[in-house]
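Dear H.,

Thanks for agreeing to be a second pair of eyes. The structure we're designing against is below in token form, covering all 109 positions.
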């Protein structure tokens, strides 16, 4: 690790000795900078993550226990176009999820 260090220039007779000492200090600084992990930016994630097959599989998983609901039946009447439109919105970054529906649960003991 880099230490704060003053170089006493009078201590060195020759300039190459001084340069060697500066090189050691800079080398330590460079090694400490190399050890710092920088965040990685990942681009175009949707291009690889979103496909028709994956979207269809996700839809089948999400519809479990809800097949008789009106929204699911309407979605499945036009399933191919719905999935293609969803895929396009995801890739363009325009997808906005719908509002959450709240409901009340009564627990009877």
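And this is the sequence the design step returned. I haven't edited it by hand at all.
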């Amino acid at each position: 690790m880099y230490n704060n260090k003053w170089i006493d220039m009078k201590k060195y007779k020759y300039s190459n000795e001084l340069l060697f000492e500066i090189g050691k200090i800079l080398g330590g600084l460079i090694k400490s900078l190399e050890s710092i992990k920088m965040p990685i930016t990942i681009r175009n994630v949707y291009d690889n993550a979103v496909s028709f097959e994956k979207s269809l599989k996700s839809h089948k998983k999400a519809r479990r226990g809800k097949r008789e609901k009106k929204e699911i039946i309407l979605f499945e009447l036009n399933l191919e176009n719905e999935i293609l439109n969803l895929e396009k919105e995801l890739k363009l970054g325009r997808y906005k999820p719908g509002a959450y529906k709240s409901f009340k649960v009564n627990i009877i003991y």
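Two observations from my side: The chain has five helices and no strands. Residues 15-34 form the longest helix (20 residues).

Warmly,
E.
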